[in-house]
Amino acid sequence: MSQSAATSDLSVPVRRRFSLDNRYIAPLFITTILVVGHFAYGILESYERTALAIVSALVAELILGRIFFGKWINLASAYISGISVGILLRSPAFWPYALCSVLSIMSKYVLRVKGRHLWNPSNFGICVLLFLAPETVAALTIQWGNFIWPLLVIWILGSVIIWRAKRIHISITYVLAFLAFAFLRSWITGDPWRSEISPITGPMYQLFVFFMITDPKTTVRSKKWQCIVVLLVAFVEMLLRLNHVVYAPLYALFLVGPTAMLIEIWKDFSHAKAQSRKEVL
Amino acid sequence: MRGGKVARIVLAIVFVCLLAMPLVMRRIDAQREKLNSSQGASAALSRYGFHFDEVAKTSDVNFIHKAPTLDHRLDHIMPQVASMGAAVSVVDFNRDGWADLYVTNSGEVSQNALFKNNTDGSFTDVAAASGVADLNQTGTGVSMGSVWGDYDNDGYEDLFLYKWGKPELFHNDAGQKFTRVSERMSLPAWVNANTAVWFDYDRDGRLDLFLGGYYAEDVDLWHLKNTKMMPESFEYAKNGGRKYLFHNLGDGSFEEVSQKLGIDTRRWALAATVADLRGTGQQDLFIANDYGISELYLNDGKQFREAGKQTGVGFSPKSGMSASVGDILNQGRYSIYVSNISEDGILIQGNNLWVPRDGTGGDAVEYDNLARAMDVEVGGWSFGAQFGDLNNDGTLDLYLVNGYVSLDRNQNYWYDFSKIAGGNSTIISDAAQWPAMDGRSLSGYQQKRVWINDGAGKFVNVAQAVGASDVYDGRAVALVDLWNRGVLDVVVANQKGPLLIYKNNVAPENKWISFELEGSASNRSAIGAEVRLFWDGRQQVQQVSGGSGFCAQNQRRLHFGVGKNPRIEKAEIRWPSGKIETIEKPSVGQVYKIKESA
């Protein structure tokens, strides 16, 4: 879910899109969701756990950034990773919050190909914890409160922010694909269609749609392919859902996102190689 | 990216080590669990100080719980809606000094049972002869549980039966039979209740009654007006049943005073218990709610004030299923245990153990959840839990049952459940929108937990080692010394399963002492009376309870284990009337029968 770019590594077009002000809108938005949600509904496991997740992410980013980029890098990205872990991860224990945040940030530095990291950091961290420590952790799948208005406010605000970041097409494509596949699943399984669209009305999807699938650093560059990739995420999610996988969207992104990145990197590499051959000739 | 090759290799190694950490922890836990479970009976007796034998059949207790069949519009999710009703309460209804058991059934026209203790190891069901068997007739709803209390102070425990349907009060006619007196109590026509507790909230010497609704009271589960009767949220629901507090007027009649006294909530109550949590002499009311936060009503004798958030127990919403209190740290204060739901990788709520924070007390009492720190956090889909000293070592242990719906072992409903649980209120609240269960299990076939208290702040699960190895869908647990041997036996009521009696065999070197109290100025059942036992420089407080756990009531007798070669200093009895009596140097191995002095 985090806007995963280490600031120093942002490409120029992305830097333009995320002016200094814009860069802090997402952290502010997610913080607002957290604070309002918590005081309205008590959504957090505890202040301490969320704080631990955030601090762990910040510290990991500071240390690793210093070692591998040689400077103190902007912490907006790490903050979003940490707060995402704090919201999405559910565990009565403390250690999963720290471990998940640290693994999320480390994944950006370890799992890299040709200078680009592959996984959305918090998506990576949460999926890994769900897979390796299911007896201790779960992800947020329940509703925050009963009322439609907070939900609408989050969707509207989130849409505005993502629109300003020029990534609204990703969110819209995903939501439309999810709804289409929900009806298809309902037709296949015979379950009520409302039960199939039910998950997207929950908070996990609010975070998933606005922060995770739109992450600039772990999505492909062209607008068309961004839409195709997110369509594939929704499709794989449908396949996982048909196999009763509870965290289908997280796993779908975990599988599809890096694959798309690898293909793009490979294409870039081939293109660069062909270019250099041409230049030599 | 900068950084030398060595730095990158070190980073990769650290990364892999961190990834491996959960696996290593899981392996260590599995080995510890294996070590604790691979014991024979004699090894368990020698290592843990006790061992269970399940003796229901040999005690002539052949009771199988039946679930109701509700409105056909719930057919597709019937197993999870009709998933409660197995309950057990302990009573000595005929005052012969031997504990008897009342067990509820929930199938339409099924029979409840009153197992009279024959004192020779066997029981006889006398419910039909006593007039408390045929209480699930069509149109009246079905039983969910019962609590016993001597509301008219005539010396015999009376029966309050709560149902998804019409609640009933039965007067105990000198231990011979029961007379229905529900009309005198002005009971509501229909309450979908899953909890009730007798207690004397105003300390006038007469027992009052709290009754907690689960589904809203205008829902008749056999004749639904519509299918929008489910909770509006998985953790924030406030569309459950109302609560009732019946004030005993002393002439056999009761007045409903809940809203007048400040108890006005529509959360989905599944369990309630009462204790003097602040040391004020007043009985505070704790409610564990499904689909939401717990509530704690502080009682000043005339008014209740909800203080869940203030005290810390009503903050994080979970799925409260059971509430029980115990002085687990031998510090003279009660902790509160609330069971919730945990399912690997899907929903890890964790059970709560609310321990009073050091330095807080009185009206400013605050609690910390120490369930994880003390290793009593994860059970499963947990229901009833009770504290009691199972090995007589001087510390309170904890018995917890788990398991929700056991159907097909190879298919589970969790995916569909989580799909709905995350949805908006308009979807989750409508039963018609829930996918069909189609014979799938939902947290079925789960093992139980028998956590023994090491006295140093940790509990260890020894369920398999000591013989508590059933995997029925456990609901109510009651602790009772069934055969007056100075040990706590365990009775478990299972949904759509048999009533189990775990006869406890305790190492004889661990001593015990018990107190059977009878009020005079206080209510005659002595509900709310406390005994504080001092021995070997330690103390432990216990109270006579009018209902605790999930749909259960333990024996009235207070049982203290005191370990090996104890030197008992004194027992201090505080009656609900406020009187305090002290017994100096009581002897071990005895049941002290104490009547409140005039």
How would you describe the overall organization of this protein?
The complex is a heterodimer of chains A (281) and B (598). In chain A, a hairpin with a 2-residue loop joins strand 2 and strand 3. Chain A has twelve helices and four strands, in the order ααααβαββαβαααααα. Chain A is globular, with a radius of gyration of 19 Å. In chain A, the strands form two sheets. Chain A has a two-stranded antiparallel sheet with strand order 1-4. A two-stranded antiparallel ribbon of chain A has the order 2-3. Chain A starts with 11 loop residues before the first helix and ends with a helix. In chain A, 52% of the residues are buried. Chain A is mainly α. Chain A has helices at residues 12-17, 20-41, 47-69, 76-88, 95-110, 121-132, 148-164, 168-189, 193-197, 203-212, 223-242, 248-280, and strands at 89-90, 112-113, 116-117, 138-139. Chain B is mainly β and 598 residues long. The longest helix of chain B is centred in the N-terminal third of the chain and has 33 residues, at 5-37. The mean pLDDT of chain B is 96. Classes of the chains: A mainly alpha (281), B mainly beta (598). The interface between A and B is large, with 59 and 60 residues.
List the defining traits of the structure above.
heterodimer, A: 281 residues, mainly alpha, two-stranded antiparallel sheet, disordered N terminus, B: 598 residues, mainly beta, 8 helices
Specify the helix fraction band of chain B: 10-25%
Structural class of chain B: mainly beta
- Cα shape of chain B: globular
- Average residue pLDDT of chain A: 85
Structure summary, number of beta strands of chain A: 4
Major sheet of chain B, described briefly? Answer: 8 strands, antiparallel
Chain-averaged pLDDT of chain B: 96
Strand content of chain A: under 5%
| Most residues in contact, chain pair and counts | A-B, 59 and 60 residues
- Written as H for each helix and E for each strand, in order along the chain, the element string of chain A is HHHHEHEEHEHHHHHH
Question: How would you name the oligomeric state of the polypeptide chains in this document?
Answer: heterodimer
Q: What's the total helix number of chain B? A: 8
Q: Which structural class best describes the helix and strand composition of chain A?
A: mainly alpha
Radius of gyration of chain B: 24 Å
| Terminus-to-terminus distance of chain A | 44 Å
